[in-house]
Amino acid sequence: MKSIVLGVLSSFFFAFTFILNRSMELTGGSWIWSASLRFLFMLPFFLLIVYFRNNLKQLFITMKENIRIWVLWSFVGFVLFYVPITFAAAYGPSWLIAGTWQFTIIAGLLLTPLFSTMITTSNGLQRVRHTIPKRALIISSIIFIGILFIQSTQFQHSSLELLLLGFIPVIIATFAYPLGNRKMMEVCSGRLDTFQRILGMTIASTPFWLLLAGYGFISVGPPSIIQVQQTFIVAVCSGVIATSLFFFATDLARHSPEKLGAVEATQSTQVIFVMLGDVLWLASPFPSPVALTGVLIIMFGMIVHSLVSNKTKQQLKKAV
Question: Is residue 320 part of a domain?
């Protein structure tokens, strides 16, 4: 239950990403700066956090052991996740981006067979590949139906180009984020805490953000003061607070594919927060009855996910 609560709380802070990225696009800011500045702003925050926790040396030693793997999965988990998200914000409203992002609920579960666990058998230690948790997939599909309800009224008023440019990049991101996150958890194997892992991935991906920033300076010029300020807010709310909460929640659930799927499914609540943000911040129309029905379906799916996850935990305790 703790991991579920942390997941929902992280989704609230993640919602700032979609709302502010769209706000920056509407005021003439480039997606290039929205992407690169967020992670460059995150770097000093996590450096200070890890430094004052006296964990910096351990992180550098661990990264040095396999720096190529760190760069690879940090690129997937951070760059291939956030660049498409900010790019899509230039072509679609925040409701479309946030709604499409909820496919990560399904994507995370579909990635399950790519991972395995060492278990003790009569023949000794054996590596067993995970299977897609069907029960979690069914529950996540309920949540996804709620997402479709929310988006249904909006699709009627969107062009094909807007839908594609605001849809396909986000679908790429929905697979990249859980894949990079899970692979790094696998690489760390519990040796690093949440803050160390985020800092390590931020450091490993920094060369890509510097290259993107350099390209942005040449192609579109420097960012405006307003964009710098809003990107800083995104970096703190989404990059520092939300990412820390979400990574900590996934760490708690990393040994159970079903519980991990439940934590990742909490990100569906972003749609609710983004919808409210659109109305209050960007002055978007209030959601229709159909969209509100979708919200209720999402809430129902989240409650079921939480109950199933908690029941599984209690069964495991009894078995032990």
Answer: no
In a domain, 238, yes or no: yes
With a pLDDT cut of 70, the percent of the chain lying above it is: 82
pLDDT for 316 equals: 40
User: 142 falls in which pLDDT band (50, 70, 90)?
Assistant: confident
Strand-strand pairing, 116-121 and 124-129 = antiparallel
- The average confidence (pLDDT) of the chain is 82
By the 8 A CB rule, do 14 and 221 touch?
A: no
| For residue 93, pLDDT beyond 80 | no
SS3 128: strand
pLDDT in tens, 217-260: 999 999 999 999 999 999 999 888 988 888 888 777 767 766 77
> Residue 126: beta bridge partners?
119
Output the 3-class SS for 59-100: HHHHHHHCHHHHHHHHHHHHHHHHHHHHHHHCCCCHHHHHHH
In the three-class reduction of DSSP (H, G, I as helix; E, B as strand; rest coil), residue 127 is classed as strand
Q: H or E stretch including 116? A: strand 116-121
Domain count, the chain: 1
Give the predicted TM-score (pTM) of the model.
0.80
As given in the structure block, the two tokens for residue 46 are 């996590």
Which residue's structure tokens are 């995970």? 130
Query: For residues 283 and 281, what is the distance between their CA atoms, to the nearest angstrom?
Result: 6
Rounded to an integer, what distance in angstroms lies between the CA atom of residue 145 and that of residue 164?
20
CB 192 within 8 A of CB 62: yes
Token pair listed for 291: 């969209």
DSSP symbol at 141: H
319 occurs within a structural domain: no
Range of the domain at 25: 2-310
d(CA 134, CA 157): 35
257: tokens are: 């594919």
